[in-house]
């Protein structure tokens, strides 16, 4: 059995590393994209914030059917105050504060909240906890993009730095 606390703590860890990626990326390069048609570093970061906030917002507000365009109709209600030119400090602050606020509210929910079935925007049936896991996996996918952009700029992502530090510390 997967516990809600474990999923939420894991998501917080993912988000800390996402925020660190933004900290590590040069501010003057936030609009970097490795190829035409790909999202910029700033756009990916903004998308992570908006998706996490919107999807958890509808769950917390009790919405159980996100299909048929219903989610698209309400997602703006949960959109954080960000612009296409939000700076590095603002993005980092939103990444950190929003995960704390959302996870705190989610952690306060009774067990029944997490086991209730919902319909995702693509029509797939899942529990709220499975949806939260999906949101975390969505962020992991985009965090990988951020890490690739870091690598293209010659910057080693935080997860690799941690692993290298642990390896160096072993006798």
Per DSSP E runs of 2 or more residues, the count of β-strands stands at 2
Distance between the termini: 37 Å
Quote the beta fraction. Answer: under 5%
- The CATH class designation is Mainly Alpha
Can you give the helix content as a percent range? Answer: 55-70%
Q: Give the low-confidence spans.
A: none
Q: What is the CATH third-level topology name?
A: Four Helix Bundle (Hemerythrin (Met), subunit A)
Major beta sheet, strand line-up: 1-2
Q: Judging by the overall fold, what is the CATH architecture?
A: Up-down Bundle
The total of helices stands at: 7
Order of helices and strands: HHHHHEEHH
* Radius of gyration of CA atoms, rounded to a whole number: 17 Å
Reported for the largest beta sheet, the result is: 2 strands, antiparallel
Please provide a written account of the structure.
By secondary structure, this protein is mainly α. It has a single domain, classed as Four Helix Bundle (Hemerythrin (Met), subunit A), CATH 1.20.120. Helix content is 63%, strand content 4%. Helix 1 (4-24) runs antiparallel to helix 4 and helix 1 runs parallel beside helix 6. It is globular. The termini are far apart. The model has no long low-confidence stretch (mean pLDDT 94).
